[in-house]
Amino acid sequence: MQQVKETRTEGEKGDAKATVVTARTLQRDMIVDKTAEDLKVRTKRFATSVLKFVDTLPRTPGGETIARQLARAGAGVAGNYRSACRARSHTEFTARMGIVLDESDESELWLTISNDSELGNEQLRTSLAREAGELRAIFSKAYTTARQREREKI
């Protein structure tokens, strides 16, 4: 989605159209693409770490409930973020970012519950809880911005 600006230049043979791509737009697109790719890697790493953590939870009804819910929510963050990046419209992107926000919030909830119950590997639990909070904050801001831009289009 590059903005293209047309300019007219005086040449030896008269007016010739020259297409100039603005450097600022290209730079912004590269930053957005890099940020999106970085978040894809980060959410995939989060999902993988969540799956490793749920293996440390006890095989009790409570532990299995947390494991099942956390595994789904943690993997959902990565899967739904990748899906949002492939959205065909801004409206679809906004809706999918809302889902990513919900999944990251739910992951944070289940990690908090496992922390309060002192279930699972403490070191993994602590680092995952911090990462879940950071991802929730990132996606909360992204969703808010996407909704604002969606409303501005109307």
The CATH superfamily label reads 23S rRNA-intervening sequence
- Give Rg in angstroms: 22 Å
Task: Give the fraction of residues assigned to helices.
Answer: over 70%
**Count of folded domains:** 1
Can you describe what's shown?
About 75% of the residues lie in helices and about 10% in strands. It is mainly alpha-helical. A two-stranded antiparallel sheet has the order 1-2. α1 packs antiparallel against α4 and α2 packs antiparallel against α3. The radius of gyration is 22 Å and the shape is elongated. The N terminus is likely disordered.
List the main descriptive attributes of the protein structure presented here.
154 residues, mainly alpha, 2 strands
Question: What's the short version?
Answer:
The protein is built from four helices and two strands.
List the helices and strands and how they pair.
Elements: E1 4-11, E2 14-21, H1 23-54, H2 61-85, H3 90-116, H4 122-153
Antiparallel strand pairs: 1-2
